[in-house]
Amino acid sequence: MVINTNLSAQNAATLLMQSSSNLSQSLQRLSSGSKITSPADDSAGLAVSMKLNAQMARIDGATNNVNNAVSFAQTQDGYVSQINSALSRMSELSVLAQDVTKTTSDRQLYQQEFHALGSYINNVSTKDFNGVSLFDGSTLNVTTDSEGNTFGMTGINLASASYTTATADDITSLSGAQTALTDVKTAISALASDRANIGSNEESLSYYSNQLTALKNNLSAANSQITDVDVAQESTNYAKQNILVQTGTAMLAQANSLPQSVLKLLS
Q: What sign results for the dihedral spanned by CA atoms 13, 14, 20, 24?
């Protein structure tokens, strides 16, 4: 039996320090909800989690871009719907102006409305969405994923000859009304094609949006497996380490008292 070196106390102190460290780590995990509270806990897992979080942030950006593009297409469709009504009325006016019982004065009245509707269509062709032209015919490349890949939205050009020819017609004469009817029918056909393209753009963007949502959910689940703590399991571990700390403290006190037995040999 020795006095200067108390191996039992040293071993008990070492074990108590380990238990205290484990208890502190378990407490941090439970309080933070994450099982990686420092890089030392799982360096590889932390690296993977960082990349997953960055990818999810990019997905959020792409989702925002797609949603804005959907709003852009919906705005286009709102205007095109009104243009369809205007062209329908213009075609009706073109037929009315061909009535042989109508005088030139009557046709001039029809022309006033025809011209007003044409001016409306020409005005709509200059509209924009947040400074981006709605109807200049440009193809817009919308970011659709976290890697920057894009989908090209087919452009709509309301300043094309199919529309401007019709809006510039004059129905004050019988021949003019006949020509206007042909031109307006051509414009209606062009508008039908353009609106179909708008619908196709919206549908495609909707699929991309759903795809991004599903991908983010899957990545979030994968990241959760790496970083999120299992509360039930960690609570059990916390209780275990807490007991070890308490028993370790008691045993260290016992070990520190062992050298006192030497006094009995000296008395």
A: positive
Give me the residues of the chain with pLDDT under 70, please: 1-5, 262-267
Judge whether 1 and 262 are in contact, CB under 8 Å: yes
pTM here is: 0.79
Residue 27 amino acid letter: L
CATH 1.20.1330.10 for the 43-227 domain, yes or no: yes
N- to C-terminal Cα distance for the chain? 15
Per-residue pLDDT tens over the stretch 120-129: 999 999 999 9
Q: What is the pLDDT of residue 267?
A: 61
For the chain, what is the HEC assignment? CCCCCCHHHHHHHHHHHHHHHHHHHHHHHHHHCECCCCCCCCHHHHHHHHHHHHHHHHHHHHHHHHHHHHHHHHHHHHHHHHHHHHHHHHHHHHHHCCCCCCCHHHHHHHHHHHHHHHHHHHHHCCCEECCEECCECCCEEEECCCCCCEEEECCCECCCHHHHHHHCCCCCCHHHHHHHHHHHHHHHHHHHHHHHHHHHHHHHHHHHHHHHHHHHHHHHHHHHHHHECCHHHHHHHHHHHHHHHHHHHHHHHHHHHHHHHHHHHHC
- pLDDT, residue 31, reads 75
Q: Report how far Cα 266 is from the mean position of its chain's Cα atoms.
A: 81
